TrEMBL record, chain A:
PANTHER family: D,D-DIPEPTIDE TRANSPORT SYSTEM PERMEASE PROTEIN DDPC-RELATED, OLIGOPEPTIDE TRANSPORT SYSTEM PERMEASE PROTEIN APPC
Organism: Natronoglomus mannanivorans
Membrane topology: Multi-pass membrane protein
CDD domains reported for this sequence: TM_PBP2
Keyword rRNA processing: no
Family from the record: Belongs to the binding-protein-dependent transport system permease family.
Annotated ABC transmembrane type-1 domain residues: 108-334
Protein name: ABC transporter permease
UniProt-annotated location(s): Cell membrane
Record-linked Gene3D superfamilies: MetI-like
Membrane spanning stretches: 21-41, 112-136, 148-167, 207-229, 265-291, 311-333
Automatic annotation (TrEMBL), chain B:
Annotated Low complexity bias: 406-415
Provenance organism: Natronoglomus mannanivorans
EC number from the UniProt entry: 7.2.2.11
Assembly with partners or alone: The complex is composed of two ATP-binding proteins (NikD and NikE), two transmembrane proteins (NikB and NikC) and a solute-binding protein (NikA).
Molecular function terms, GO-annotated: ATP binding
Lineage top rank: taxon: Archaea
Keywords associated with the record: ATP-binding, Cell membrane, Ion transport, Membrane, Nucleotide-binding, Translocase, Transport
Annotated protein name in UniProt: Nickel import system ATP-binding protein NikD
Localization: Cell membrane
Topology in the lipid bilayer: Peripheral membrane protein
Subcellular location, principal: membrane
Domain (ABC transporter): residue spans on this chain: 7-308
Chemical reaction(s) catalysed: Ni(2+)(out) + ATP + H2O = Ni(2+)(in) + ADP + phosphate + H(+)
From TrEMBL, chain C:
Domain ABC transporter: 24-278
Pfam families in UniProt: ABC_tran, oligo_HPY
The organism's place on the tree of life at top rank: Archaea
InterPro entries membership: AAA+_ATPase, ABC_transp_ATP-bind, ABC_transporter-like_ATP-bd, ABC_transporter-like_CS, Oligopep_ABC_C, P-loop_NTPase
Compositionally biased tracts (Basic and acidic residues): 285-296
Alphabetical list of SUPFAM superfamilies matching this protein: P-loop containing nucleoside triphosphate hydrolases
Composition bias type Polar residues, residue spans: 1-13, 470-485
PROSITE patterns (UniProt xref): ABC_TRANSPORTER_1, ABC_TRANSPORTER_2
Keyword terms of this UniProt record: ATP-binding, Nucleotide-binding, Transport
GO molecular function terms noted in the UniProt entry: ATP binding
Positions of region (Disordered): 1-21, 277-315, 463-485
Protein name per UniProt: ABC transporter ATP-binding protein
Amino acid sequence: MISDRIRRSVRSELHSSRLAQVGLALVVVIVLMATLAPFIVPHHPEAQQVGTGDTEDRTNLPPIGFSTEHIQTTPDGQTEIVREGSLEHPMGTNTRGQDVFSRFVYGARVSLLVGLLGAGIATVLGVPYGLAAGYFGGRTDDALMRGADVMLAFPSLVLAIALVGVFRDSGFHTTGLPDPFVYAARHDILGWVIPRSDHVASMPSSVTFPVTVTLVVALVNWVWFARVARGEAISIRQQEYVKAAKSIGASHLTILRQHVLPNSLTPIIVLATIQVAAIILLESALSYLGFSGTTLTWGQDIARGQSDQRSQWWIATMPGLGIVFAVIGVNLIGDWLRDALDPSIEGEGGV
Amino acid sequence: MSDEELLRIEGLCTRFFTENGQVNAVENLDLTIDEGEVMGIVGESGSGKSVTALSLIDLVESPGRITDGRIWFRAPDIADELIESGADDEVTDGDFVDLRKLSEEQRRSLRGSRFSTIFQDPMSSFNPSITVGEQIAEAVEVQRRARANPRSLDAKAQRYGLGDYVLSTVLPSKKYVTGASRDRAVELLELVGIPDPVERADEYPHEYSGGMLQRAMIAQALAGEPEVLVADEPTTALDVTIQAQILDLLSKLQAETGMTILLITHNLGVIARMCDRVGVMYAGEIVERGTLEDVFDHPVHPYTRGLLGSVPDLEGAGGRLQPIPGNVPSLLDHEMPDRCYFADRCPKAMDECLEHPPAFDVEGSEYHTTKCYLATTEYTEEKALPDGYFDEAGRAADVGEEPSETETGIGTGTDSETETETEADSVQSDGGEPR
Amino acid sequence: MTANSSEPPSRTEATTRADDSPLVSVQNLEKYFFENDSLLDRLLGSDPVAVRAVDGVSFDVYRGETLGLVGESGCGKSTTGETLLRLQEPTGGRVEFDGRNIYDLGRSKLNAFRRDAQVVFQDPFSSLDPRMTVGSIVTQPLEIHDVGTKADREDRARDLLERVGLSADQLDRYPHEFSGGQRQRIGIARALALEPEFLVLDEPTSALDVSVQAQVLNLLDDLQDEFDLTYLLISHDLSVIRHVCDRVAVMYLGELAEVGPVETLFEDPKHPYTRALLESVPRASTDERDRDRETLSGDVPSPRDPPSGCRFRTRCPQVIPPADVEDELEQSTYRQIMNLRERIEAREITLEEVGVEGSGRSENDAGEATLAVGEDGLDESEIPAFVETMKDRLLADELPAGHDEIVTDALAELARRNWDGAADRLREEYESVCERVDPALEESGDARESGYRRRHPVACHLYGVGADPTSETQIPSPSSNADAE
């Protein structure tokens, strides 16, 4: 399906475009970070150290290389407390003493999962829909696309909030995805492969995955896939090889599968990449507003850190940077694919 | 037709620098065009005929470049002016000036007033959102302003900046196009045989049929009363009945204005109908040229013969067609062997043909020349290259057949625009500079 | 290329082999496309506009022959080809293949038909899926019809590739690795994979260079002999048609103008359109410059709103005037009056600014007033000036006295803004049989009984036997017109 020509063009574009390299590096780092989270993080992302009981108060520590001073009033009078960032909490801690870096790393998991799955579901919904509309044309197209237009007419955030409102009390709202590394470490499976297995075993055993939010972002975004797929199908429908396939008696399904789908893949791949970024943003917005149902996401952390923005700027800034880097990285990859694939389509289609 | 030379092209080379390598679209081309004649260039797609036209009017676009050669154009006024300003022999030669040595601005000022072009696809040559009359009036206006300026080479009068544009949209009195130019546009439309020119001038390009638009494009080309009209496949996109109308129109205009026409086409019938002299192009060079009779009735080059033999005859069914075997060759520099480029398809390839032939004069006619050893040497069986000689050589160099068309980006169609665009795209997809 | 036959294959031989029942019989085929037919348009209540791409076309294709379908772009020839293969559903009419109406076929019968009738397309670039290898392109038909095993199919594909002049080891290459002519050969190989009886060749060589075109035409000729194929060759190129076909059908604006054996049709064309078409083609010979020819004026009318009666009448150099007019007016003068009337009917004449000085050709714009016809028309006193101006502008020739009067009357009506009155006045006097009655495609004279190979029907009133019984028009002899050329 992927010809040498495409492969060559993708490679040479990567070779010559600095931006594509940056994008790829960003995304690789984020993906590795999300996948290998239990090995990377120094602390359990949810562990609080507020100074009650036998734990030390480690709230509001600044990131490494920064220090804060504030006056604490105690019965003995006022003391000035200077807190220095330490290697133990490279990005500092939040108001509950949770390690910001650990949350940052774990937050990437949710964002990426929702982004990829959301875009995947949107593709699976939108592409066949759009291909069918474009390929059959006429009345079918009219009916299908007017339906899709109705979906577009809803403001996506409002639609998302409404759907979340419906599902948030059902058990369906979130689900725990077990972390295979932690499971392996705890049950001593392949213990010898897993470094620092005690540390890993102490990490959260599952990731709370926001099912509703994923479905919502897919529902909000599938129409774009349908529209792009339809446009492609319309132009491919008029190609003579489709007529030729009809004349040899190929069924509509065969034509769609053998000719229309493969030839419309390129713009869909480009769109899907860019949509991953859009979905990461939408997910952040939803969890910022408190709709996601998980507590360990970038958006949620921004919301929490927001009120202390002035004194503890790092709490909201770090997850914010995470969103920025993820979105920029994915978008750069989208641009790279677009630049690499589009001209080669023309080359292949033969001007 | 006066027998005075108007254009003399010497050793013109135009190359395209693509990611696949250097493409020699036009290779060492010599050509003279007399004043008032219709000169035809005929060739198949990928022969470089359109690039020749583009080179002449200085419209070769990146990654293409004219790398060598001179284009002498007879323009005594410009020559005088240049000599006054101290130009040397490199730039002028008597009444002739070398277009390639002129400055960008000077060259631009010649477009429209001395040279005009009509292209194959009139639909894409007009702006769909402006009326046809307005667009022709604009062309008239450009020329009128240029002429109003006594120093013809100073193109400043033609300049139309952003400020002027903004002003013209706000103040009607500052409009670029004047009423006089509009009247002239209507006259031009009438001249090219558009019925109801007054009404049609106010219509948009999509309201015109293909033939009408081609007429309108001719009207636009005539706006500056050019001395040379370069017609690049002017009738290829048209039906035969419309083609006949357009050819008649061109003949009529040529007779009336005495302008010189360089007609580029792949259609031998069109050449026969229109041209006084013909050049046959193959693989970037003119392989045979002469008067129409020389080339059509006494062709020497086997390619010319093959081309003529490939056309089915309308007058009689005849027997089997005599096609030229094989495909149009690749123009990639590293794949162009140092031999006659046609030898691998030639039925009369001989030992001599392994060396690239110079242009030979053919006896019996003053103007008839050909780049083929057959002009001087008799073909004999002994000298013939063995069958399959080039197959083996070719297979050794590159396994299988050359996908000459898409790979080089040259010659996917007769439309020169597509060619250059493809070139540009393929380079962009590489993202780097032409290597 | 193909070393199969050194001698030119005799066409008559091929046709004598055939029996006399047609393989494909197209009867009154119609295909309209509808514009403004979307959901929104229907909601807004706008009526769909019919584009009559094919409007009642009938012809037969006999076994073993090559029928050429020739016409200019937009005349409906490609739509005819696609509709008769049922790649598009027709609006009306029937197509019988081997005696069976293909539009009534059920699923399995239709599948069988698909095996027997194939098509080769014009564009060698868009007719092959860029993402499939040549092997899968050529084996696709076999796969769809479930022929043989995978290995069988690949063997067959190798054979086919060699048969069309490519090498069998190119099976796993992609189309972009081939040149235009080679791609067209791949397209032919795909069409031949199911061993069809009938091939529609839709402009198979128009995208190719002449030298390559000749290769492909020779190949098609060889294949026809080898596989007993019947061809319908659709082309705009008359010399290709002449070279390849046994019989020719000439199409104009969705209708057939003339059908006949290739020699007769090219040497003695009857329909004025066929004649004009043949004259328009520039010959590749040195005599071409001095060849006199009469070119058609004007453009092909839009198929959205085709002319009444004979479709060709708006461009025809031989429109039949009413009997009383015929002797008095030259054809060109008559044509001018017809054009004037057409423009009045279409209300295309600008009345707001009628320059008295005339056509704009004259340079003296020294303050001469222009006439503007207002809502209520011109003042009576200004009418003569208006009429003169209009005559100057719209008619090149002086009219004989009687006709001058009629035209003056009509233009005076126009000055009163009475468009219909002006048109009626002209129609009364000058309406031609060509615009009232659409001529049927009919055999003239005694040839009607001869075999299909010699039949030469024409859709033109010049030859129409009783085309319009109410008309007293004396039909001018076609030969006198032919001599005039």
